[in-house]
Fold these 3 entries.
Entry 1:
Amino acid sequence: MTQKAVEVDRDRHDASNVADSRERMLTEDEMVRLLMRERVRILGYVRSIVGHAEMAEDIFQEVAVVALRKRSEVTELRSPGAWFRKIARLQSMNAIRKKKAAGLDPAVLDLLDAVWDQRDLDGSLRVEGLRECIGKLPDKIKRVVELRYNQSLGSQVVANQLSLPINTVYVYVSRAHRMLKDCIERYVARKTQQQGS
């Protein structure tokens, strides 16, 4: 598991903690964090609709304003990307109409939305699978993974803390990658099959 994968997992975990199923309004800070985390994706999505980077930046600002204003309506936000894309789509279409600019055909946009939604679903399933699969790792390997990735410790530091040879840490990390990859793939396949039934 790469540091990037752990950061993505941590971000998604933070988002689920920020917007868990408790009946409460997201704070302004929580919404801003979600917006900043999703910024590049939102900008990419908007730019694919409007075709102009500067216009996309302006629309992102409008998306942020709308999201902050509507945060009181949101008590659960498990898929912030999808919610932000809905806002971005409306803001993009409004901007295209106002400027009488060329934009993405709505039928093509519907196809694009389906791809983005599937990507969000796949990513969410992978994160759920990662959480479940880490719990299934053998204790020695799990401890190395926790120190190496959750606490961002270097391999040598992990080896020293656990009184293990450095090569053992490398072997455990390699095994964890392989075990997690296989386990997550099985998890996603199982969940996808269950959702299709």
Entry 2:
Amino acid sequence: MVGLSSDRVVVVTGASRGAGKGIALALGSTGAKVYVTGRTRTEGDSPLPGTVFATADEITRRGGVGVPVVVDHSDDEQVQALFDQVRQENGGRLDILVNNAFVVPDALTMRGPFWESRCRCSTCSTSACGRATSPATTPPRCSPPMVRALW
């Protein structure tokens, strides 16, 4: 990835699988420290494969520093605790926030065409992450670059 230094501090929400995992792995391959968040602690906890620990381990194998953090992004207290941890471990620094957390409805994990499933997204996680990162940003910027995956 062009233009990214290896000392970046990154949070990728919803990085157990899918787009979030891909983004986390790409950023980690630059040597960044990537906090991988999601609800899936162990294989089998979700009907879909992937865990925060597996993604973090793969980031580390690729030359970055993967930090797994189990977070339910629908719980504002857990989100705040995540960003308190990031602040404490990195001297208040956060360079990039990728807001990708998404609750996959059970209907989307079943076989069949995607368009026959009902899918609802919530912006609550995005708002909670935005509020929680405000004091964690690196001066003199107001906020870290933030990416919101749209579904």
Entry 3:
Amino acid sequence: MSITSFTIILVVIYLIFLNWNYRWLKKPLTKAEIDRLSAKGGYDDMSAVGKANFRRFMEADDGKPFYMVNLMKYREKALYHEGEFPDVKTGEDAAKLYNRAVIKELIKRGSYPVFYSRKMANLISDSDGTDFFEHVGIVRYRSRRDLLNMVESPVYEECIKHKWASLEKTVAVPTRRVMMIDPAVTVTLAMVIIWLAVILAAS
């Protein structure tokens, strides 16, 4: 394969990736789109404060990607309604069922998890209750519309029961990425790029 052909293939793959990762020229959510979720009962599993916060966040849509930071404490025993899923014992077991289903829905919409970790210890906590969480997860969403569309999907409506069965407490905070640097990743990528450049130059 010639270098020209190889370059064209790489450019095409990169353009496909960009089209999946970003959605340009998309308008912000409309009031009708936001109302549709409410009419379907999409807010029913939230508290009154949660519903109001979620709606305000959607109404402020700018069409850009964002990162949802999730602080989570799982139940020792999964809590389902009317004895559903008796084989699912712990909150973490229920969370695995939720994650298995929701990750596919995220990827369909140019969204994906970027970080997941278990807390090592409590170190600095200036107020009571701020150290409740045991796990931290960060999910990158392509847009608020993609989040809304996922929440409306039949798959999500079916798997959301596992999320609430798994969680004793949770806080979800949308953020905008300012800086995300991991030398272990960037240096490795740089070395791979240099290696590929040398191989291509020598061929």
